[in-house]
Here is the input.
Amino acid sequence: MTPFRDGGEPGRRQAHGPRASATQKGAATPGQGATAQGAVPGRPATSQSQGINARMLSDEAAAAIASLDYRDTNMKTRRIYTAWDSKGDERVLFRGLNALARHGVKPRHIMVYILVGFWPGETHEDRDYRRRRLREFGALPYPMPFRRTPELVGFQRWVIGAYDKRIPWGDWKGARYSPRRLGDRTTLPLFPDENRSVPK
Here is the structure.
């Protein structure tokens, strides 16, 4: 995965340009990426670190990906990476995501990078629509600001920290995108199956 110019997951190489995402640059095919030792025979542990192009998945490819012991870059957490750059890709993206789910991939295993702050005339409602759709599906949205404005970075932090699950955007924005100004409402597991609090 090569995320966008600004923001991104810690420790990941940054690529310039709005289309330098998993859906455009070097999308991995099943079997590529780092492989862990001790993999179960017939089900190799692999990190699809460049991401997959969920918009282009055939049913056969989705089944092949689902058959892997897919992992994050640390080879610890079950994770598949993909990206959603434009709202216009919604139909083809969710066709791929649903194919993965149909073949046994749990939606919470899928991290979806979403490009924000690039398209002319983009509004908060535009980017929040993608966040909401991914949450409803059960995937993990990960906003990638093309420009690091306070609002876009605030949106990124709101989503990555899972604050969006319990704190309305208006309250978050009113607190100037800081959990310290929101009191006790900020403690929430980042992932549904993990018992931990988000960092303040």
